[in-house]
Specification:
There is one protein chain. The chain has about 375 residues and is an alpha/beta fold. It contains 14 helices and eight strands. It has a six-stranded parallel sheet with strand order 1-8-5-4-2-3, with helices on both faces. Strand 4, helix 5 and strand 5 form a beta-alpha-beta unit. The longest helix has 30 residues. It is globular, with a radius of gyration of 20 Å. The relative contact order is 0.12. Bound molecules: nicotinamide-adenine-dinucleotide. Nicotinamide-adenine-dinucleotide (NAD) binds next to helix 5, strand 6, helix 6 and helix 10. The site of nicotinamide-adenine-dinucleotide has 33 residues, from helix 5, strand 6, helix 6 and helix 10.
């Protein structure tokens, strides 16, 4: 890693139990004052939407609390229409990665709509016209990245397309571990594995850099310390706090690199077969690690060490095989599905060749550190995961 090139982003990050109360004060630093909240029903039930409404008062011009998974294009259009009607100038995503992704997609579309007459800037570090603010309550990590996926629902099957737009990076992130206390155990486990996957793919990314590597290694340590504790007792605020630090680091490690095979496959399974993102991550990660082991073992050794595995005279590839097995076992310990056949009733074994073909054309899959030259490599991996 003697040459590198990456973009880092200006973001205000406020972390701490009870930090949601600082939202109003934090917003005083921004010119934007007409917010649309993108969230979903469970945030309403948990009372978190009420809290934001109480804090922001009239500055909250609309609440869209029906965000579905995987950022559906039809919902983006609905929110865009609401934002336009209410003359909104910024978006808040509160909840999982889908709500934050929705806020990013809507903000980008609003900017496009209101500035179409201007010459598009080619700068990668321009400030956004309508910024995104994020209040994450899962461990998906979208709040730290310039990336979002949009699912094109009029295609058959629907296809999730990833967009990398530096202006989409949330300008303010409020991490309040208290908001994660009611995150159900399955979501805790599966989005926790998603965070671990960010660190793993950052470590072997073709765009890795000293910052992403350092952050990813630290992320793995926090996640491994805290994830099982959070799964076993969601009310453990200390563990919830450490896990949220881990997911913050995981998201940050992802922000300056490109992901590879694992994330590309998870996007295909989510967008085209409706497998929840965290579940796709939990099933695919051990297989992606094994697939890449001969090309990436040295980069993954620090993650293996953080999980208690050391070389002890073995070859790096053998240690990385053990890492894959250890993650497979962790997924099982948290009662998550370990095989694709258990991921979604909508998914059939006969779908695998078609999914492999979609994945073969996926840009993220093609950014994998070990070249993927034939669709049969992907079909074989999916069959192993079946
Ligand atoms: P999600 O947002 O699709 O769903 C989260 C679920 O958990 C929802 O049902 C929600 O109601 C529930 N939930 C969330 N917080 C809760 C709480 N505190 N209490 C009770 N219920 C709660 O799931 P996700 O895994 O967080 O996000 C996945 C999406 O994010 C995918 O679209 C994925 O592609 C995207 N993603 C993007 C990035 C990125 O860098 N842009 C990174 C990771 C994931």
């Amino acid at each position: 890693m003697n040459e590198f090139h990456y973009i880092s982003y200006a973001q205000e990050v406020i972390f701490g139990a009870g930090s949601l109360a600082q939202l109003s004060e934090a917003f005083e630093h921004f010119d934007h004052q007409r917010f649309v909240l993108c969230t979903n029903h469970s945030m309403r039930v948990a009372g978190h939407v009420d809290s934001v409404e109480a804090i922001l008062g009239e500055r909250l011009v609309a609440v869209f609390d029906q965000v579905r998974p995987h950022v559906q294009d039809v919902q983006v259009n609905e929110i865009l229409a609401i934002a336009d009607e209410k003359n909104a100038d910024a978006f808040i995503g509160m909840g999982g990665g889908s709500t934050i992704g929705m806020a990013k997609a809507a903000a980008a579309m609003l900017e496009q709509k209101r500035t179409y007459h201007l010459k598009p800037s080619e700068s990668q570090i321009d400030q956004p016209f309508s910024p995104v603010f994020a209040i994450p309550t899962t461990y998906a990590g979208s709040e730290m990245t310039p990336v979002y996926g949009i699912t094109h629902t009029n295609e058959n099957p629907p296809r999730k397309v990833t967009v990398n737009n530096p202006k989409s990076v949330p300008k303010l992130v409020i991490y309040d571990p208290k908001l994660t206390i009611d995150l159900p155990s399955e979501m805790t486990a599966s989005t926790g594995i998603n965070a671990l996957a960010h660190c793993i793919e950052a470590l072997y990314s073709i765009k890795r850099n000293p910052l992403s590597t350092a952050v990813a290694i630290s992320g793995v340590r926090h996640i491994i310390n805290a994830l099982l504790l959070c799964y076993k007792d969601g009310s453990n605020l200390e563990a919830r706090t450490e896990m949220l630090i881990g997911s913050h680091l995981a998201g940050l490690s992802l922000a300056s690199v490109t992901m590879g095979l694992h994330h590309g496959l998870c996007h295909v399974l989510g967008g085209s077969a409706n497998v929840p993102h965290g579940i796709a991550n939990s099933i695919i990660l051990p297989h992606a690690i094994r697939f890449n082991a001969d090309a990436t073992a040295p980069q993954l050794l620090p993650a293996a060490e953080a999980m208690g595995l050391s070389l002890n005279g073995s070859s790096p590839i053998v240690v990385i095989e053990s890492l894959a097995q250890k993650i497979f076992d962790l997924v099982g310990q948290m009662n998550l599905p370990q095989r694709l056949r258990d991921a979604s009733i909508a998914l059939q074994e006969s779908d695998l060749p078609r999914l492999a073909l979609i994945a073969f054309q996926n840009r993220t899959v093609q950014n994998n550190p070990k070249p993927i030259t034939d669709v049969s490599q992907l079909e074989e991996l999916l069959r192993e995961a079946w």
